[in-house]
Design brief:
heterodimer; A: mainly alpha; MetI-like fold; 13 helices; globular; B: mainly alpha
Chain lengths: 294, 280
């Protein structure tokens, strides 16, 4: 019974294996390979060593990279803060919360691009809602094109990205909140702990793993965010919102420089491998913990 | 009691929820208001939330000014449906395999899936473009369906696995004693029991591919008849003057099908969304 290798479980893996190898694993390998070539739309390509890498470092690469990390860091922090606030609010035992939960979801349900189309109008300097209301209450003295200036467009793309990402964080943290045993709160309550104290001493510590996991996942997604910036600014004005992803896409797809684009993609993969390692270690640790308890 | 709020606390919480929901829903609200305005009122300062000349005219006009709109809506749903079918064909057997059998290489496979899940589709766009070019799939539905499906497979397997793990092993043993083949057991015994889990996975995969059609369609497709909704409407922006009232009306009409589905399936959506992020 034990000597023969059972092929059945392997056979079941075949479809998934084929699809992920063709669409993810092989392209991953190919990205590394292409980054050492001068590939373009032309049928011929030759290996050029590290030339592409040297070229991108002579370019404004460091600037793009630091901009990407700042963009991601602010975005993820805001998503986590908004998500935590939202989760705590929606967890309050008040009439109507089922409806509120429903109303949080639309940005996540609709295609990202459609949501961003709506934001392009929100940011319209003369007629959009933000500028319009800001002028009404006197925050702005006149029309202001949010997407036309370096700083404001940087902030605007972050705000929209936070808008896209907040529902998921909210609902995820809400689910974690609800899994905290009620008697912990009751014990703290009998001891006379205030609401805020209970939040700080019971909720936050127990929520910490969920916040950390979500933060990490969110960091990876935010790093890879493409549509928000592409639709709002296409990386402009004057490169102010060009993140590594946008930069790679422009180089490779808009200008057909596959080799150089691949080198930029490799730099993204290297930057992200940091998150991946943390995440995998975390998953392995929790898997071990689960294995022990069962 | 512990859950009792004082009156001023209630007011505070409701006010905070209102602000939070305003941030979440403001773009939809504004899109709706814009869609009701005639075009010259859209471009009118100072900004007014409500005007007298509002009407549903844009909702009538879009069908003639965007003749492709029904097609785009159909394409979006079609691409995501096919991607979901393809993804499920991959996910279900694989998830069953990793949840039921112990074998060499299984944990490596799962680890690889987690790693793959970290890689975004945008990073791989160059080789994918070349792949689609070489396979002759550019400007076909397949170019949008296959990559869309592939990137949902890792999460899908983990999600589906958590449902299979809850199905009692005795079911298979009973079927085995009755002489059923293992494939038959999976198909006729396990799948019906795991059906709620399959719905959750299907809904999750569908929504993921539906939300992310933009990139693949933008890069791999230039045929207007095959465009999904986001790209179909994206061409609005290329025009000299963006017809915002119609654009917003088209956006809202376009998302009606998923919003209706969402109302009916929200239980499954929440289950998939929260479990999918945990991946345990």
């Amino acid at each position: 019974m034990k000597t023969r290798v059972d092929s059945f479980p392997y056979l079941l893996l075949i479809p998934a294996f084929l699809l992920t190898v063709t669409i993810v694993a092989w392209p991953l390998f190919e990205t590394f390979r292409l980054s050492f070539t001068n590939a373009s739309l032309r049928p011929t390509q030759k290996y050029v060593g590290f030339e592409n890498y040297i070229e991108i470092f002579e370019d404004d690469f460091w600037e793009v990279m630091s901009r990407t990390f700042i963009w991601m860091f602010i975005g993820v922090s805001l998503k986590m803060i908004m998500g935590l606030i939202g989760a705590v609010l929606l967890n309050a035992a008040l009439p109507g919360r089922a409806v509120f939960r429903l109303l949080v979801m639309p940005p996540w349900i609709v295609p990202v691009a459609i949501g961003v189309f709506m934001w392009t109008w929100m940011y319209n300097g003369q007629f959009g809602m933000i500028s319009g209301l800001a002028q009404r209450i006197g925050l702005l003295s006149g029309p202001f094109e949010f997407l036309a200036y370096k700083q404001s467009s940087f902030i605007a793309t972050i705000v929209t990205d936070v808008w896209v990402g907040t529902p998921l964080v909210t609902l995820y943290l809400l689910a974690s909140l609800q899994s905290i045993p009620k008697d912990l709160y009751e014990a703290a309550w009998t001891d006379g702990a205030s609401r805020f104290y209970r939040f700080r001493r019971v909720t936050l510590p127990l929520l910490a793993p969920a916040i950390f996991t979500m933060g990490l996942l969110s960091a990876i997604w935010t790093f890879n965010s493409f549509e928000v910036i592409w639709i709002l600014t296409e990386g402009g004005p004057r490169g102010a919102t060009t993140t590594m992803i946008i930069d790679t896409y422009k180089t490779a797809i808009s200008r057909f420089r596959f080799g150089e684009g691949s080198a930029r993609a490799v730099m993204i993969l290297i930057s992200m491998s940091l998150f991946m390692v943390i995440y995998l270690i975390l998953m392995a640790r929790s898997a071990r913990k689960l294995g022990k308890s069962s | 009691m512990i859950d009792k709020y004082k009156f001023h606390e209630k007011i505070g919480i409701y006010a905070a929820i209102a602000v939070f929901l305003f941030f979440v829903l403001a773009p939809f609200l504004e899109a709706f208001l814009v869609s009701l305005r005639p075009l010259d009122a859209v471009f009118r300062a100072p900004y007014r939330i409500w005007t007298d000349d509002m009407s549903f005219q844009a909702y009538i006009d879009i069908w003639s000014s965007v003749p492709g709109l029904p097609r785009y809506i159909f394409n979006s749903l079609f691409i995501s449906t096919m991607a979901t079918v393809l993804a499920l064909i991959c996910i279900i057997p694989a998830a069953y395999s990793v949840s039921r059998f112990k074998y060499r290489g299984r944990d490596t496979f799962m680890g690889a899936l987690l790693g793959i899940n970290m890689v975004g589709s945008t990073v791989l766009i160059i080789p994918l473009y070349k792949l689609m070019l070489n396979l002759g799939l550019l400007n076909t539905y397949s170019a949008m369906i296959i990559p869309g499906a592939a990137f949902t497979v890792p999460v899908g397997i983990f999600l589906m696995r958590s449902y299979f793990l809850r199905v009692p092993k005795e079911l298979e043993e009973a079927a085995y004693v009755d002489g059923a083949s293992r494939l038959y057991t999976l198909w006729r015994v396990i799948l019906p029991v795991a059906a709620p889990g399959i719905v959750v996975v299907a809904v999750t995969v569908f929504l993921t591919t539906y939300a992310q059609q933009f990139l693949f369609a933008l890069t791999f497709n230039s045929k207007d008849a095959l465009h999904p909704l986001p790209i179909g409407l994206f061409s609005f922006f290329g025009r000299e003057r963006v017809v915002y009232n119609e654009l917003m009306a088209a956006c809202l009409v376009g998302i009606v099908p998923v919003l209706i589905g969402f109302i009916f399936l929200q239980k499954y959506i929440v289950a998939g969304l929260t479990a999918g992020a945990v991946k345990e």
